[in-house]
Amino acid sequence: GESVGLHLPTLSVQEGDNSIINCAYSNSASDYFIWYKQESGKGPQFIIDIRSNMDKRQGQRVTVLLNKTVKHLSLQIAATQPGDSAVYFCAEFPGRSTGFQKLVFGTGTRLLVSP
Amino acid sequence: DARVTQTPRHKVTEMGQEVTMRCQPILGHNTVFWYRQTMMQGLELLAYFRNRAPLDDSGMPKDRFSAEMPDATLATLKIQPSEPRDSAVYFCASAPAGVGGYTFGSGTRLTVV
To answer: Residue A96 — φ and ψ, nearest 5°?
Structure first.
């Protein structure tokens, strides 16, 4: 029978370009967000986080932007390198009202960087 | 760097056999998670523990899967009997108390033939 796989959105960029990966979250009560990077054959790796009282946070070559009005999160990678090729997941903590907080992961975006 | 250690990295087994996957969380982390990742379903949360007590295993098929934490340095995920549809990568992750990021292990790639 036919198999249906998880179709990840894919972003293809050239080395040296800036990349922007977007994520829409569903819970307006979410108060903490994380971006993870997963390279082939490895587990997800923490990249950067942001709390809901912030709009922007910068790391080394990465910036996360949070727009709570439209429930949108983005990850910007400056001067993208071939080593940045991976699947990127956003994750949210749904807020203290739910008791023990579990991260809720998005489906991921595949970033392909061409030399 | 502190890391979550999972063993084995790869496991190939025949349908019907028992499979045990192990995880050593980061020392001091009090919450441990088991995830399964497949192309079809993405990352699925199977079970998690806090201070070694199981909090939620609603993501696991109860009839064949079991998860335990015999002590603070070891978490296990067992499948008995295994089926081909269990083929996936199983990740363990640990986290400190409070709100914070999870640290994932490198996963166990399970193939059931």
So the answer is: -65, -20
Determine the pLDDT at residue A1.
35
- Is there a contact between B104 and A44 if contact means CB atoms under 8 Å apart? yes
What parts of chain A have a pLDDT lower than 50?
1-5
Structure tokens at B10: 């790869």
The secondary structure of A17-46 as a DSSP string is S-EEEEEE---TT--EEEEEEE-TTS--EE
| Residues B88, B107 contacting (CB under 8 angstroms) | no
**Three-state DSSP state, A86:** strand
Contact B48, B59 (CB under 8 A): no
Question: Chain B, 11-50: which have a CB under 8 Å from a chain A CB?
Answer: 38-43, 45, 48, 50
Which pLDDT belongs to residue B59? Answer: 86
